[in-house]
Amino acid sequence: MTFNTFGFLGFFLIVMLVYFVLPGKLRSYLAALASLAFYALYDLKITVFLLIYILYVYFAARILEKKGSKPVFAAIVILALVPLLAFKYLNFSLHIMDSVLGRFVSSFGTHSVSLVVPLGISYFTFKSVGYLVDVYKKDISAERNLPVLAAFVSFFPEMLAGPIDRSNNLLKQLREKGEKRFIDLEAGMLLLFYGYFEKMCVADRLKAIVDGVYDNINDYNGAVVIVAIAAYSLEIYLDFAGCTHMALGVGKSLGFDLPVNFRQPYLQTSVAGFWRNWHISLMDWLKDYIYIPLGGSRKGTVRKYVNALIVFATSGLWHGAGLNYLLWGTLNGLLQIGGNILNPFKDKFYASLKIEKESEGLKWFKRLGTFILMSCTWVFFRAPSSTYALTIFKRAAMKLDMNRLFDGTLYTLGLSQKSFNLMLLFLLFVLLFDYACLKGFKALEFVLRSHYLFKCFIFILLVAIVAVFGIYGTAFDASSFIYIQY
Predict the structure, then answer these.
(1) What is the distance between the terminal CA atoms of the chain, rounded to a whole angstrom?
(2) CA-to-CA distance for 486 and 481, rounded, in angstroms?
(3) I want to staple 436 with a disulfide (CB 3.0 to 4.6 A). Which of 39, 372, 414, 441 is the partner?
(4) What are the residue ranges spanned by the domains of the chain?
(5) What value does the mean pLDDT of the chain take?
(6) Is the Cβ–Cβ distance between 336 and 272 less than 8 Å?
């Protein structure tokens, strides 16, 4: 049951009705019950595993608070990571073992284990490990109220694709009584349906183009493949950002402020800037719990770069158990390091040409360069293997053949000409909207401060666009969000 289904809307409506009926002091209990019910509707058997994991985190934190020695802490964190490592990386490890040992032992067979990966395991594991680290460091006390901790670990808006919340945010809010405000419901609904717009009206249309090329790569080359590469960069952004806006909207409707996960990443002027504004909750988690403990930038330039590579490699493996994900993460780390090394030379180059560093022209040039670099790295992310990714690059480098962009080829990839043009219109809106937000325009606050008739108009317009061009659009597919698998 994903956000973009009528089943979820029915579930959410029931939760909202109960929320506004119950006393505020029971908000955390409702959050816990709704989260477990949501998980049970997705997979009842795996819900038992989630309950056991919650109990483990609950008692482990209590133990850490009383006996916070390093060996105990290490053992508790390792045990908290074991399910994630087993479900997501066991078969990957067995595959590597088979590849290595098979070279020396001809009779060595292929080993694999059939496992159903629990929904959101990467998110609730990182959330729980962060909580345990915070308790160990005395930044927060161990939670005594089991329903409150259960709601924190399994909060249903964050189970599909994050964000990865922290104890100093969501857990703190769950401990409070909370105040029911109609303006929270208004803000939540606007965020929810803007997320629907990003996902269903734009990302799903882009998906048709990407799948059409990536799944039949030998049928295309040059400009068409380049378009698909760029389209995937936009698809994954609008798919993931859309899901995040939905999560923020659902949380806000219940009175919870969840962390922002995106700040116009493709309008940043460097790879480093991109990663400061993309999947913010994950990158902040990796910085606080891996990069800084490794020494951060405190132990010299070489160590700083090594730590950065470790963080990005970890990010790659967090997304998936595959060499292509590891390569994707490492490549992003190398790009960021390369950018830092080249910065002084770029500054001298701009100065020699008397180019103002803060000029809009230069910024847009840098944005284009950053988008191209990131689009190239996403090829490894989308391709089923690193070998397939290299094939995509090879096909893109063949005869450019710009005529294929105008001869109707793009309309044979799953979208009609009208649907394709509508997608371009929606993309232009998203770009202008993101640019306005980058320049300080606070759209949500602007709408909420407006006259109620204007608010009703904006909301009805959003619902109508999603219904007409999303649900009943030619590209609609109630498929899972890209980041649900991570």
Answers:
(1) 16
(2) 10
(3) 441
(4) 23-179, 184-485
(5) 87
(6) yes
Q: Per-residue pLDDT tens for 86-112?
A: 887 776 666 666 555 555 555 555 555
Residue 378 and residue 274 in contact, taking contact as beta carbons nearer than 8 Å: no
**Dihedral of the alpha carbons of 182, 183, 188, 190, in degrees to the nearest 10:** 120
Q: Which amino acid is at 243?
A: C
Q: How far apart are CA 369 and CA 395, in angstroms?
A: 21
pLDDT confidence of residue 119:
83
| Residue 7 pLDDT | 86
What angle do the packed helices 182-196 and 452-466 form, to 10 degrees?
30
Cβ proximity of 54 and 32 under 8 Å: no
Which amino acid is present at 325? Answer: Y
pTM of the complete model: 0.88
What is the Cα 252 distance to its own chain's centre?
18
Q: What is the tens place of the pLDDT at every residue in 346-403? A: 888 888 888 888 888 889 999 999 999 999 999 999 998 889 999 999 999 888 878 8
**The tokens of 6 are what?**
């009528």
Higher pLDDT, 346 or 58: 58
Whether residue 311 has pLDDT greater than 60 = yes
| Length of the chain as a residue count | 486
DSSP track, 184-214: HHHHHHHHHHHHHIIIIIIIHHHHHHHHHHH
b vs e for 223-253, b when ≥16 Cβ sit within 10 Å of the residue's Cβ?
bbbbbbbbbbbbbbbbbbbbbbbbbbbbbbb
Residue at token pair 């939540």:
188
Work out the number of other CB atoms within 10 angstroms of the CB of residue 284: 18
Rounded to whole angstroms, the Cα distance separating 320 from 332 reads 15
